Amino acid sequence: MYTGALPAVSNRETWSLSVTVTDDTGAAVDLTGSVVTIGVREPESLQPKVTYTSGDGKLVIATPATSGVFALNADLDPSLFPPAMYEVGVIIRLASGVKRTLIVATLPVMDGVVTSS
Predict the structure, then answer these.
(1) pLDDT confidence of 114, banded at 50, 70, 90?
(2) What is the pLDDT of residues 10-30, one digit of tens each?
(3) Which of these, 109, 101, 94, lies nearest to 49 by C-alpha position?
(4) Measured by CB atoms within 10 angstroms of the end CB, which terminus of the chain is less buried, N or C?
(5) 65 phi and psi angles, rounded to 5 deg
(6) Alpha-carbon Rg of the chain, whole angstroms?
(7) Average pLDDT over residues 78-104
(8) Alpha-carbon distance 52 to 103, whole Å?
(9) Taking residues 36-55, what's their average pLDDT?
(10) Distances (CA, A) of 28 to 3, 32, 37, 64, 66
(11) Cβ contacts of residue 44 below 8 Å, gap of 6+?
(12) H or E segment to which residue 14 belongs
């Protein structure tokens, strides 16, 4: 499990996150039939502000799933994400039913100043 800080992101851009899931030997985990969920919340909050689930169009498991890669590309809304430090959790449910927490981290969100047209 990764714990720490994710790179800062602007609240006026697409937040991109790519993760390769590996086992204890460093080999890619086959994500065929897996479900990945990412939640973002304010510190000390019990409920995420947003949740992304693989297959929702923003969070996808790469092809081939045997590569162990999933990626998120989600536009951040400044009204939903004012500049602050947020908490991010990533969990995966493998096809076998086993659940693993992959990431528990902080995400600094900065004011992007300019809104694109």
Answers:
(1) confident
(2) 999 999 999 999 999 999 999
(3) 109
(4) C
(5) -65, -20
(6) 15
(7) 95
(8) 14
(9) 95
(10) 20, 12, 18, 11, 7
(11) none
(12) strand 14-20
Q: Give the pTM.
A: 0.91
Is 115 in contact with 16 (CB distance < 8 Å)?
A: no
For the chain, domain boundaries: 2-110
Fold of 2-110: Immunoglobulin-like (2.60.40)
Position 117 scores a pLDDT of 60
- Given the structure tokens 């720490």, which residue do they identify? 4
Write out the two tokens for 5: 């800080």
Tokens standing for 78?
A: 């400044």
Cβ within 8 Å of residue 83, ≥6 positions away: 11, 109, 110, 111
